[in-house]
Amino acid sequence: MGRHNKRTSEMKLGTVNTLFRLKSSDIPPTLDRYCCKMTASEKNASGEHVGQVVVVTGGASGLGACFARLFASRGAHIVIGDIAEEASKKLSESLGGTSLKCDVTKSGDVDALAQHAVSHFGKIDVFINNAGIAPIPNEERFATAVANQMLRLENNVSATTPLNVMTDMTDEEWDHMLKVHLYGTFYGCRAAARFMTPQRSGSIINISSVLGLRPTAMAPHYSTAKAAIIALTKSQSQELAPLGVRVNAVCPGYIDTPLLAPMNDLMKVAIVSQIGVGRLGTDDEIAEMVSFIASPKASYCTGEVFSVTGGYSG
Predict the structure, then answer these.
(1) 105 in a domain, yes or no?
(2) Among residues 34, 183, 222, 254, which one is catalytic?
(3) What CATH number should be reported for the domain holding residue 127?
(4) pTM for this structure?
(5) Each residue of 230-240: pLDDT tens digit?
């Protein structure tokens, strides 16, 4: 059986006799923790998004804030929708844009955000469905999952311990995760399409996840919601392509943003060990992919799923 000593951060697993001695210094650094720090030249660049109107849900922090900064640095007009009203207002104003309080689980809020963008700037060119929440990490359950994996490698499946992720999950937890991710993305796609189809142009970008491609037993609600976003993307791209509107999805891997902050060292080391490049990703690496998809360079891309995972093999 696996044993986890929280005080010393040591873990002994099965008869393989593997000992993890984990500390923060064991975790390879990212290129720059919580990136998206623009150089002066980037801030002054005219860029490939000049004049575009870009709407970002969940744009007050994390990946969404990075998207907003990058597009603004390349000439776009930014509209941020977020439940964090003051933070989104402060950021959008610093970028010369505008914001509106938006709870993506409420279709009326998302419709109002799209209308707000058009009222201010006359159109919507890019709509990024980014708003999301992360599953709450469970240290004990994660340690059990690692121990179970070692036992399976030893062909000792009968000794594994039930995780009880699904059986312990409440209806409310399941519903809320799908409401934020799947419903919120659908509401955003629908609101954007209502303005993009008459103008016969536009790019809708849905932020999914590597767990939408490779689901994990640790988060069935999150994995399901993110996988459904991929299916939604492919479905809507077929309807909207003849109307000049492209719909694509981006699946980030494990990115070094505040969403990973609740994870302990064991979790982070275990994750990084499955990433081919040996480190977590940065938010600006995802932002560069999103910028490409929104640009004319990606005019032949629709219904595509862009995986940005550093070679994650989990």
Answers:
(1) yes
(2) 222
(3) 3.40.50.720
(4) 0.85
(5) 999 999 999 99
